[in-house]
């Protein structure tokens, strides 16, 4: 098996004048890229989930701002046109704060006087991209330290190279722990309805030669009861000041089950995932996607008695989390301390 970098598969590739986005909806059956040359295209790539995962959508949006500047500069009012595109990019998905974090950084650069604004914006987008990869490697090592001799873990959704600049948050921890020789097995939830676990996570793990077993989401309690896993390791879309964590729908149920079974829960996320402007997870907007992702077309008619509710994230209260790992440091038992200690670093 070759690993992802040998396959040269990356969620995002900057060509210098366009953004190539791997269409993750087609994995693992085919590896196909779409080439975007404007912010409207990148907005659509995020909203349609060709690119997904909190850090990856932030990075994509940053490149979207570069494309916008390339399109409008040096026309009169070019900055106003780019600001409009930033608003459009920000409306693509609501929950992952990395999107707004990256757009905010790009917006600050936009209004900073520069002899060559395109070069300055490009450099910043590439820095956001490179910093995310570096953060993942740092978290991988820290998280592997905490896992210690754990032999098997469960992960949910896809928090891997595909969801980030590269290497992954939760899968970064898993990759680092596996390299150390302790971690022998990874269980992955299917992650309905979009199947990030079944289509993306087990594919990534297979490329790296890490033994993985896919389970139906509803098998997680029974897996924990069997004593087969020591930890659950997941990523995050937004972490509030008290340590509450928004992540893929189903994470909250896993954390409740983990408490019952004495399994520990680790959240790995870069500092771009923290939202210190929100005190608790109650304030996070949870994205609800089209009922079509859940329900057969025959029910989706006016007046049907059957409908579908499709929230795609949930919030796990801090007290159910054993450790939050970032590139800046670790918080053990965030339910006791919150995560403000990471803010000033
Ligand atoms: O809807 P998605 O696929 O964008 O959701 C992704 C997740 O929930 C991930 O767990 C999260 O973004 C962390 S990715 C490093």
TrEMBL record:
User: Residues at site: Transition state stabilizer?
Assistant: 157
- Catalytic-site annotation from UniProt: 237
Q: Which UniProt keywords apply?
A: Amino-acid biosynthesis, Isomerase, Methionine biosynthesis
Give the originating organism. Answer: Methylomonas lenta
Supply the PANTHER family for this chain. Answer: METHYLTHIORIBOSE-1-PHOSPHATE ISOMERASE
Q: What does the entry give for GO biological process?
A: L-methionine salvage from methylthioadenosine
Q: What is its EC number?
A: 5.3.1.23
What this protein is reported to do is described as: Catalyzes the interconversion of methylthioribose-1-phosphate (MTR-1-P) into methylthioribulose-1-phosphate (MTRu-1-P). Also catalyzes the interconversion of 5-deoxyribose 1-phosphate and 5-deoxyribulose 1-phosphate. Part of a bifunctional DHAP-shunt salvage pathway for SAM by-products.
For the protein in the UniProt heading, the enzyme class is isomerase
Report the GO molecular function annotations: S-methyl-5-thioribose-1-phosphate isomerase activity
According to UniProt, the name of this protein is Methylthioribose-1-phosphate isomerase
Q: Pathway listed for it?
A: Amino-acid biosynthesis; L-methionine biosynthesis via salvage pathway; L-methionine from S-methyl-5-thio-alpha-D-ribose 1-phosphate: step 1/6
HAMAP family documented for this protein: Salvage_MtnA
User: Domain of life, per the record?
Assistant: Bacteria
Catalysed reaction per UniProt? 5-deoxy-alpha-D-ribose 1-phosphate = 5-deoxy-D-ribulose 1-phosphate; 5-(methylsulfanyl)-alpha-D-ribose 1-phosphate = 5-(methylsulfanyl)-D-ribulose 1-phosphate
> What protein family is recorded?
Belongs to the EIF-2B alpha/beta/delta subunits family. MtnA subfamily.
Q: Which Gene3D superfamilies does the record cross-reference, listed alphabetically?
A: translation initiation factor eif-2b, domain 1 (1.20.120.420), Translation initiation factor eif-2b, domain 2 (3.40.50.10470)
Q: Provide the residue positions that the database annotates as binding substrate.
A: 52-54, 93, 196, 247-248
Q: Which gene encodes it?
A: mtnA
């Amino acid at each position: 098996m070759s690993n992802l970098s040998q396959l040269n598969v990356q969620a995002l590739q900057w060509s210098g004048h366009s953004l190539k986005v791997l269409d993750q909806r087609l994995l693992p059956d085919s590896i196909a890229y779409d080439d975007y040359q404007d912010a409207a295209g990148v907005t659509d790539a995020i909203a349609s989930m060709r690119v997904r995962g909190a850090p990856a959508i932030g990075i994509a949006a940053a490149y979207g701002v570069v494309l916008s500047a390339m399109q409008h500069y040096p026309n009169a009012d070019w900055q106003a046109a780019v600001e409009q595109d930033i608003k459009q990019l920000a409306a693509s998905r609501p929950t992952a704060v990395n999107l707004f974090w990256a757009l905010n950084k790009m917006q600050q650069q936009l209004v900073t006087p520069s002899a060559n604004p395109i070069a300055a914006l490009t450099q910043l987008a590439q820095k956001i991209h490179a910093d995310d990869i570096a953060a993942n490697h740092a978290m991988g090592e820290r998280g592997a330290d905490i896992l210690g001799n754990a032999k098997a873990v469960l992960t949910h959704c896809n928090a891997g190279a595909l969801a980030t600049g590269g290497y992954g948050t939760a899968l970064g921890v898993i990759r680092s722990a596996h390299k150390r020789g302790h971690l022998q097995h990874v269980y992955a939830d299917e992650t309905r309805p979009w199947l990030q676990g079944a289509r993306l996570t087990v594919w990534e793990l297979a490329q790296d030669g890490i033994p993985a077993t896919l389970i139906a989401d509803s098998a997680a309690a029974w897996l924990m009861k069997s004593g087969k896993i020591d930890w659950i390791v997941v990523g995050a879309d937004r972490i509030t000041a008290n340590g509450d964590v928004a992540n893929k729908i189903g994470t909250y149920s896993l954390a409740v089950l983990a408490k019952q079974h004495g399994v520990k829960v680790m959240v790995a996320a870069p500092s771009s995932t923290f939202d210190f402007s929100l005190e608790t997870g109650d304030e996070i907007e949870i994205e609800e996607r089209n009922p079509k992702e859940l329900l057969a077309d025959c029910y989706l008619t006016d007046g049907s008695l059957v409908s579908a509710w499709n929230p795609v994230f949930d919030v796990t209260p801090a007290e159910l989390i054993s450790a939050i790992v970032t590139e800046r440091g670790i918080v053990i038992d965030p339910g006791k301390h919150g995560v403000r200690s990471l803010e000033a670093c």
